[in-house]
Amino acid sequence: MPHFIAPSVLSADFANLQRDSEMLNSSEADWFHVDVMDGVFVPNISFGFPVINAIKRHATKPLDVHLMVMQPERYLQDFKDAGADGLTVHLEASTHLHRTVQNIRSLGMKPGVAINPHTGVSLLEDIIADVDLVCVMSVNPGFGGQKFIENTYRKVSQLKELILKNNSKALIEIDGGVDLTNYKKLIAVGADVLVAGNTVFAAPNPVEMIKTLKLG
Ligand code: DX5
Ligand code: ZN
CATH code at 80? Predict the structure, then answer.
């Protein structure tokens, strides 16, 4: 399967969201990755519904919304209304994760589950058949532009095995520190979706950078 590229709008220029959304529309990016941070689950606050609404007005590609939020089950309908196509919640942040995942799907969004760097892949065993995506955090969530954690490769291989064993259709998404030094190896070990914030938006030519990451 060809891999997907999901640039993170966390690294976009928020004063020029229309311009940056149009850049992504014109590029080979597959999804917009939208990072929502609550200042509790992670030590940073990003943005909420009004900003997602604004992105949705200009985006011609699916919104892959990543909630770094405690008890995300409180807001599922709101994210649907704001325009989320995929909604990923953290395993560490939702006590009744199975119910949350079912509710995301029944609202017509693609459910995903994200795991922090310290969370073992084996904890996904009883949810893997129910999700469309697993987001493997390759940095501690909260900020763009951090250094990639090398242990991620091992986790991707383990996750690939778990997916095959359970006949799951889940895509493997890698989020954090993806750059020109690691993207090829990530694809080789089984990544399906590469999120890239800093690598895309700090590039002299973001459209060309997306093209490079997409080529693999
Ligand atoms: C980290 C976010 C990531 C981040 C990726 O908390 O979930 O999506 O924006 O940014 P880079 O690619 O700059 O690490
Ligand atoms: Zn993210």
Answer: 3.20.20.70
